[in-house]
UniProtKB/TrEMBL annotation, chains A, D, F:
UniProt cross-references to InterPro entries, sorted A to Z: GatZ_KbaZ_carbometab, PTS_IID_man
Keywords: Membrane, Transmembrane, Transmembrane helix
GO annotation, biological process: phosphoenolpyruvate-dependent sugar phosphotransferase system
Protein name, per record: PTS system IID component, Man family (TC 4.A.6)
Transmembrane segments: 140-162, 185-206, 226-247, 254-274
One Pfam family in the UniProt entry: EIID-AGA
One GO cellular component term noted in the UniProt record for this chain: plasma membrane
From TrEMBL, chains B, C, E:
InterPro entries: GatZ_KbaZ_carbometab, PTS_IIC_man
The keyword Ligase belongs to this UniProt entry's keyword annotation: no
GO BP terms, alphabetized: phosphoenolpyruvate-dependent sugar phosphotransferase system
Membrane-related topology note: Multi-pass membrane protein
Tree of life domain: Bacteria
Transmembrane segments: 6-25, 37-60, 98-120, 141-168, 188-206, 213-242
Organism: Hespellia stercorisuis DSM 15480
Subcellular compartments: Cell membrane
Broad class of the protein's primary localization: membrane
Signal peptide bounds: none
Keywords carried by this UniProt record: Cell membrane, Membrane, Phosphotransferase system, Sugar transport, Transmembrane, Transmembrane helix, Transport
Protein name, UniProt field: PTS system, mannose-specific IIC component
GO cellular component labels: plasma membrane
């Protein structure tokens, strides 16, 4: 075994983590998204790995300007892994540009999916619902509670992921990702997320009919006398499922669907069908 | 209530800080500030009434409650709705329901700012490419950290500040005009809009059978009057137990498969 | 309230149309009309007060809510209870609870009509046999479509019309006599009777372990005050997920078995 | 392959479906139940399959006068299948009377079981509960809502089944019936049905004690002070389970059980135990 | 209210009968009498007010609701809390909440009596050893049945009787002194103590994942206001169905394993 | 096969069961716990099995004075089994002291675990909750209801277990214990027990904050305005989980933990944090 010439200190890794955490989206753009965020997060690394070697430092910089986009907290596991690979490479391991790049492009998609589901799809709506329920009555603490939940959960996750990526390295991360446990977590999070979205629909999508139907001498309120007996909240549920159908099965753009909802609202609101 | 120049600029700053990618703990910090729930309180504080800000902000948050921003082009901008929306609603002294209806079109305008900064930032990437070719890390960092922030600050804070300062009068008049059925219609629209965020979110996690869980959550909330937190806890536990059972079934198959491989090896 | 001859005949017709096998979309149409819930409104309409008919009909429906008619001899006839029962209850002006108690014995009488037409129709089958031997399709169709309907019409409509016309006075007197504890006892009986339909239905779907789900549904309804619709939806989803897990386990066995067969083949 | 001489048109099949739907029970009787219903539903078929051939037409008629009883909507799959077999037979396939008859008698039982469970055991009580909840307050729409739910669900099922039977034919239907999916659907429907029956018991079987118990100076209401603390609705639940026990384990006839309930009600009502 | 000598002795007897191992259907009888819920009514009866006894006893039962006594040294003695505690609380005429706070320290004292009789009984075991060596069954039975009961009776009934007779005055004074915040603090403590019994019980049945069910039960009770009985029934049914699924999965493995053993045998 | 010389009558077995039921803990002690309870429950047996044979009777007595401790109702299965083994032994089967002793010591632990879980961990808290709910309003029947539930369930179980043990004998009992069904019952009972304990926590552990927080001019009630929005009953839940943690993970003695709770209560009560 070859003797290790350069070694990143704990502090080097920590700095990279914090820079990634703070600046990943600083220069977010249509062409390469988080590309320069990756580079900047490791801006102190080349001088460490290739002290004085301008040529290698230049190659390092070029290497990390490729297209990159992932969910930053969970995706930190990739960044940590890349850092470990760069360290090995500087110590002579045969890791070429392609290897590093394909790891990045191969993993950024799935991990973004996982991360967005867990974070934006599950945790954030719950924390928002809690925050709103506190704030809606005029309680300024609601916003703070929301912020503390988000930071309290996400920052440790981000830290853990980055460090896990750095210490486990390439094979370790792939093992984690392909393991049954990871699959189960995603599955469980999706189920939890979907159930929570159901409760959000019930609590926050509102559509009630104000129409009355006259049958002979008696008058029936469409909403309370008929629709509510069939299924409480059936209209909001139906509208949300319609929205999903348009987005997913009809592959409409979300702005188009929003327009459709606005038109439905306009018509039903103006005619008094809903109100 | 009228908005002073200083107040308008401060609100503009709040908007800027809530754009994805400002040098806060990116996404964590900025997405928190981006929420109308949070921005509302701060705007309220700037305008001298944090309690009213909290109420308006919580209301404007509703249509964005399940808003998910993944990669590409966002359909609307909760940040603009939460800052400019809250400010104008407070200036016009409207009820929370009307604030929602006002904030939604404002949110749509925000996507323009997003498109602009996402496009302009492309120039900086190219500049960093050149810095990389020169091996000049300092320059690369400068183009990543400093330049885009100046652009975003100008693109974000200025229009919001102007909007706050000049918009409040206009909006008050418009609200005046819309009294009655029109405002009610806006409220109907506001009630429908959370469906978008929820549906986009559902689409993102969509797997066969997932809609059943969605309907389950809906029924539990509607008929048992359960809030989001207890449903989340119940759903989390049940989901774990359920997927654990599935994993147990699949383990067996794997065990089976591998044991058969063994058989093959032996023969 | 007294019932005119015309009204009595119309009500008799409604009863006839609710007998299984009248030329409505059989079973779908006739079983709908057979329900006191539906017949009640129509009878009410005939008697000039559909609203009261709806109330009485919904009440009389209760003991028959889970009534299931499969093949053989039905234990009672919701059709007679819903038509004659509603008519007499409206004529006597009783409360819905008392209407239930009146309708139940009337329902039992209906089985006589059923036995009669099911027996008489046997003659027509033999007539169609002969038509078949002659290859005479027209005659076969006539004996299938027309003849049994005439019989059923006479067997069904006439007694009901007579019952309506002459029964209302008698029933009013009886009800008068039963005031107090006796009527209350009839109501107690009426409260127990839905148990029959439910138990027959349970017996029909009985499988090991199924009673646990029954108790679950009961507890959810009693303690959470859930109505039938939400319980049906929740139960449907949970049942699907549960049986899906069972199917997954069994798949494995099948997979296992077949793979073992394979092994056998190879050896 | 032999060239096909006679072919049923789409319209022929449709007519058979509609006649079956309208007249299946027109001549329902103790001896052969729906036998002549099957024949009449295909009354236009013999002339089509054996134009002018009186002998074959006669045989066709005799063939379809055998005992038959199934749930008409789901059972349509058998009728459709039989129609397809008759068509093949007329085109020379070797399908004898026995084959057709054994298909009918073999499948009519199981499918009646499935159909009755799904329709009368599950859908109908739910639709009735909805209808009652609307109508009980004097709303005439309740009956209509019930009717629309029933027709809206059952007619499409009937149509689908008949056509499925005709197009898939014999082997197809057997494959469907023996497949795991069918088993799962029945299982799930039974579970759903049982749960719904539980809620019906809770909502519609009523039995409350009005007895009071005196302990020293204080008086206890048996129902609210004791029974309700043990188990809400325990008496109705117990009575329904007793009914089930008599029907199922003691194999009593339903009329006998009804008599027993009436007697229980008489005694408990007259003595004031229940009231 | 003051307690007479006779009453004090009777209460002492009740305490004795509730000690594990008195010649009632051991554990079934004695543990029933040991419950403050039961002892409270009896003490109330002795003191002439069973209704108040029931109320106080039910309250004192609370911190012991999930108390589990398995083998070794019990952490507290519900029997003493239920007898002496109820008696003193009734004598002092305190509210149920204060009775809980009084009964808890009393319960702790009870462990002394337990330790004493568990130690003294060791002598009798040795006596029975000697009887066995002599083959003298009569003597063995005498040392098992009679002697320990006399000891337990003295150890249990006397202190309780004395406590009742002399304690009531003292306790009334103490309660007087504690009015206000101190008593309120005792009530806070009383509210926390059921956690011990529950946690000990949870520890006893602890298996991986079991805490999820615990939280589920908690959420259902808190958010749906469900009492213990419906939760027990629901949990029982769901637990059966869930473990049945697990058993089904594991069957497969067993089936698999054994079939592989078969393979091995054949090779 | 050897002819059987001595046979225990049904009455002998019953007497042993009842004596065990009444006197198992009569001489409960630190050294050998239920040892003499086992002996006394069979005090009429030696004379039956070894009539007149003083030596064997002495050995019998010595044999059953060894350490024994189990849950008496469920554990009766061991006692019954031991009785059957003694009978066989008296009839010449080669069962030595060790065999009998190891059966007792081997099974008493697991069965105590099962029994305590099912009885004290599951049934008893439920019955207590029912009893309390009746009694708390001043209803003296509550205690009776509790007693009847306990006796009504536990006595039949005790009887069944003892008889099962006697009739199935050694191998039978081991088969029962190692079978999957037993494992499932324990598992299900644990789940049910844990869920019930959750509901007990919700209903009986009470801890509410009475603190108010002033934010500017407005005053927030910590409990109702913030904590209840986060999680209803979160404080009692947290305290119970803390208690469990101290007991289980920190392996503290229950009296120590009780002391800690008392101190927490003192501090929070005195300062008015809780109240
Ligand atoms: O989808 C991955 C990722 O894309 C962008 O970076 C942002 O929208 C993030 O919020 C998101 O997590
Ligand atoms: O049981 C099959 C079938 O039998 C008869 O035809 C009727 O009672 C139907 O309602 C039922 O579906
Ligand atoms: O743990 C087994 C057993 O131990 C002792 O005998 C007593 O505490 C019983 O209540 C318990 O069942």
């Amino acid at each position: 075994m070859e003797e290790q010439r350069v070694k990143l200190s704990k502090k080097d890794v920590l700095r990279a983590f914090w820079k990634w955490t703070f600046f990943s989206h600083s220069n977010y753009n249509y062409e390469r998204l988080q590309a320069s965020g990756v580079l900047q997060s490791m801006s102190h690394i080349p001088e460490k790995l290739y002290p004085g070697d301008k040529e290698e430092q230049k190659k390092f910089m070029q290497r990390h300007m490729s297209f990159y986009n992932t969910e930053p907290h969970f995706g930190g596991i990739i960044n940590g892994m890349v850092l470990a690979m760069e360290e090995e490479r500087a110590n002579g391991a045969s890791i070429d540009d392609d290897a590093i790049n394909s790891i990045k492009t191969g993993l950024m998609g799935p991990i973004a999916g996982i991360g967005d589901t867990l974070w934006q799809g599950t945790l954030q709506p719950i924390a928002l619902a809690v925050g709103i329920s506190i704030a809606a009555g005029g309680n300024v603490i609601g916003a703070l509670v929301f912020a503390l939940i988000m930071i309290g959960v996400m920052l440790p996750i981000g830290y853990f992921m980055y460090m896990k990526g750095y210490t486990t390295g390439k094979t370790g991360v792939e093992a984690i990702l392909s393991g049954g446990k990871m699959k189960q977590i995603i599955q469980a999070a999706s189920i939890m997320g979907a159930t929570v979205l159901g409760s959000l629909t019930a609590n926050y999508v509102t559509a009630k009919s104000t129409m009355n139907i006259s049958v002979g001498s008696s008058t029936l309120a469409l909403q309370t006398d008929i629709l509510d007996k069939l299924l409480l909240g059936g209209v909001p549920l139906g509208i949300t499922l319609l929205t999903l159908y348009l987005l997913k099965n009809k592959k409409m753009k979300s702005t188009t669907v929003m327009l459709i909802l606005v038109i439905i609202g306009l018509i039903c609101g103006a005619t008094g069908i809903l109100g | 209530m009228s908005i002073s120049i200083i107040q308008a600029i401060l609100i503009g700053l709040v908007y800027y800080l809530g754009i994805n990618g400002t040098p806060w703990t990116t996404l964590l910090g900025s997405t928190i500030l981006q929420k109308p729930l949070v921005a509302g309180v701060i705007v309220g504080f700037i305008l001298g009434d944090p309690v009213q800000g909290a109420i308006i902000g919580a209301a404007i948050q509703l249509p964005f409650i399940a808003y998910i921003s993944a990669g590409g082009a966002p359909p609307t901008d909760p940040g603009l709705a939460g800052t400019l929306g809250t400010a104008l609603a407070m200036a016009a002294g409207v009820k929370p329901e009307a604030a929602i209806a006002m904030a939604v079109p404002i949110g749509l305008l925000g996507t323009i700012i997003w498109v602009l900064h996402m496009t302009i930032d492309v120039f900086f990437v190219h500049a960093i490419d050149r810095a990389a070719d020169e091996g000049n890390m300092k320059k690369a960092v400068f183009y990543h950290v400093a330049m885009p922030q100046i652009v975003t600050l100008l693109l974000g804070a200025i229009p919001v500040a102007l909007g706050c300062y000049f918009g409040s009068g206009v909006v008050t008049n418009i609200i005046e005009l819309l009294q009655g059925r029109p405002l009610q219609t806006l409220e109907v629209i506001g009630g429908l809009l959370p469906a978008i965020g929820i549906a986009m979110n559902l689409r993102a996690i969509s797997k066969p059978g997932i809609l059943m869980w969605y309907v389950l959550g809906f029924i539990l909330a509607v008929y048992l009057g359960l809030q989001t937190m207890p449903i989340a806890i119940i759903a989390g536990i049940v989901a774990y137990l359920y997927t654990d059972l599935i994993a147990k079934t699949e383990e067996k198959t794997v065990a089976l498969d591998s044991s058969e491989d063994l058989d093959d090896d032996f023969i």
